[in-house]
What does this fold into?
Amino acid sequence: MARQIDPATRDALLARVRFYRDLGLTEFYRRPEDPALLAQLAALPAVASDEPQRDSSQETPIPPRKPMQAPPEIASAIPPAERASALQIIRDEIGDCIRCPLHVGRNKLVFGDGNPAARLMFVGEGPGADEDAQGIPFVGRAGQLLNNMINAMGLKREEVYIANVVKCRPPGNRTPEPEEGATCSPFLFRQIDVVRPEVLVALGATAATYMLGSRQPLAGLRGRVHAVRGTKLIVTYHPAYLLRDPRQKKEAWADLQIAMRELGLKPPGRG
Ligand code: SF4
It folds into this structure.
């Protein structure tokens, strides 16, 4: 018979899970010591009242290791004035997409938002409840925090471009399955090729995994500049994770300062 656990115990267990993830320990999920307890954890209802833009990568098992499919070839550059229409062509091609199972629970497909010729582009994992309702990425509490992060860099939200690895909300805020991410991520790569930002920022481990094409602990990816599709990539925490653990905001700000350095930006008020 499955062991009963109370919400406080659940929170403690999830905090421990997040701590292990911060240390880069992820594979222990594959051999749970108590499957019944983990099954019961998964069955507990999620808090939905103030659910932020989803980032399950810090809380739930990442997908098992499988070879990741190669990303599409980098497309030719498009003049800035034509990038909005080029993005619309991708959106039209996606259409009322049923290419992966995530379409089943979708309310609105969340394509992307912002300046089609942005110098800076943020990439998250997938839509949350607010985004699914509005069809716009990062509009919930995590979106407000992302807006604050963008403002702290001396930019406005409308100056950057924002998209996710998957365009439809995974049920129960789970991490996208490898097949779902593999099916949807080519559209993200095409968006990146059109926008052609000078700097990409991956928000969380899932976004970093799909953009880099390999699964590595977030801790090992932060603090340096990667190269993706001819663009510089910085990896930092997802704003939803920062809402849960505000102590990491200082670390995230250090990551954003790397992006600012690469863009030649100075924080507001520092001339
Ligand atoms: S997540 Fe992407 S591939 Fe899957 S149904 Fe939505 S748009 Fe299509």
User: Anything to note?
Assistant: The longest strand covers residues 231-236.
